[in-house]
Amino acid sequence: MRIIIAGAYAIGTYLAKLLSRNNEDITLIDEDAERLTEIGEDYDLLTLEANPGSIKTLKEAGAPDADLYIAVTKDEALNLNSCILAKALGAKKTVGKVDNPEYIDKDSQNFFRKLGIDSLIFPERLAAQDINDSLKMSWVRQRWDIHEGALVMLGIKLRESCQILHQPLKDISGPDDPYHIVAVRRKDQTIIPGGNDKLEDYDLAYFMTTENYIPYIRKIVGKESYEDVRNVMFMGGGETALSALNTLPEDMKAKVIESDEERCEKLNEVLNKKTLVIHGDGRDISLLQEEGIDNTQAFVALTPNTETNILACLTAKRLGVRKTVAMVENIDYIGMAENLDIGTLINKQIIAACHIYQMLLDADVMDVRFLMNANADVAEFIPKKNSKITRKRVKDVELPKGVTIGGLIRGQEGMLVSGNTQIEPGDSVIVFCYHINLKKIEKFFN
Fold first, then answer.
1. Helix, strand, coil tally for the chain in percent (to 5)
2. How crowded is residue 322: how many other Cβ atoms within 10 Å of its Cβ?
3. Partners of 303 in the β-ladder
């Protein structure tokens, strides 16, 4: 597959690294030679120092024969224009990053498709959705509602109070139990568990269940003492915070601490009245105490500085906040943040890259998520008629090592999957993969 990426910034370089490992034919365009040199020496891809808004450049990069053109520069207008040009030259699919939330509503998306842009991504909105999903339950590190909650994935840090530790999974998570444990992160190791594996203290376990059994999961993992999130404090009032605050669940109240006085004025203009904007430093303990940190169930740090976010979350935890969320833009810090028990970690680049990655798959793929803490992928596949996955029961399909099926949705009903499950064409199937290229999995669904 021939893929052209315009913009050697965070999203572009992450995608280029990911796709080059999959032996895709990648060309990375950027006007900055230094940025191209940093990535070009270590990965199998072509680099082109040029302006992606030039027809000559796009032709030289191979746009007429491209399967996918991705524009993720810092210039929104350049992204839109180069996508339109690439499509006109013959690129099969185009996707562009935008900064204007107006562009991603349904009517605008249809308008841009007519111009030749197949998909638009607004990373701040994607990150805001993940933040708000994580705030729905203070005792959960990560939550993913699939088909409006027909199935739910919960990432939970297990403590000594968990009732299901040190027992073989075959005894606590069998075909008739209302949950499956589909992945476990243990220190620096990710496990796709089998029946003989056991859960241990401080594991980060990923549960697949249905919404009506969430209270049961909460009980068996020993999290009933955790308060539900009613009051949440944000540090940093950038675009990600603004998107999250504007879509915050109705039953939550929020305060946002922003160090820039001019930005505070802007936030006061655009945020709803239930959000209090405070001018100050979110690392100031006296300010946090004055603003009621002791009555806050969640603290969300979204400044542009990863170290600041991590330190602020540690401070909030020391002051008694159980639920913390940190924006970690530096991927090298993700492991450290997890070891410090920060809580939910958000990285806009990885979230946006996953959204783009699903466009590369030939099978019908509704969604792709990357579990940063577990270094694993989750994808929602829809099997076609006569595909391999529909010919046998799950236990007889011989899926690759490192792959497990967590559940499926048939019609509007979510159900867990066991070895005896027969998957049918049209089902939405949730697949967990560790160290497996999703391109190798899609052949089972085509």
1. 35, 25, 35
2. 18
3. none
- Averaged over 288-312, what is the pLDDT? 94
What beta strand segments (E) does 179-297 contain? 179-186, 189-191, 204-209, 231-235, 253-258, 275-279
pLDDT tens readout for residues 311-334: 999 999 999 999 999 999 887 888
Beta-carbon contacts of residue 12 (< 8 Å; ≥ 6 apart): 5, 6, 28, 30, 70, 72, 73
Between CA 355 and CA 97 the distance in angstroms is: 11
CA 305 to chain centre: 19
Separation between Cα atoms, residue 132 and residue 89, nearest integer Å: 40
Tokens 């008629």 found at: 385
DSSP state of 168: B
User: What is the predicted pLDDT for the residue at 334?
Assistant: 82
Which tens digits make up the pLDDT trace of 175-218? 778 999 989 999 888 888 888 999 999 999 999 999 899 999 99
Give residue for tokens 């906040």. Answer: 321
Residue 364: band (very low, low, confident or very high) from pLDDT cuts 50, 70, 90? low
- What single DSSP character describes residue 259? S
Nearest CA to 344 among 172, 179, 66, 156? Answer: 156
CA distances from 130 to 98, 159, 183, 344, 346 (A): 18, 24, 19, 9, 8
pTM as predicted: 0.84
Find the Cα–Cα–Cα–Cα dihedral 331, 333, 335, 340, rounded to 10°.
Answer: -150
What is each CA distance from 419 to 131, 296, 361, 414, 436, in whole angstroms?
A: 34, 44, 26, 17, 20
The dihedral formed by the CA atoms of 368, 371, 372 and 374, expressed in degrees to the nearest 10: -140
Mark 128-143 as b/e (b = at least 16 C-beta within 10 Å). Answer: bebbbbbbebbbbbbb
Secondary structure (DSSP) of 187-217: TTEEE---TT-B--TT-EEEEEE-GGGHHHH
**Which pLDDT value is given to residue 365?**
63
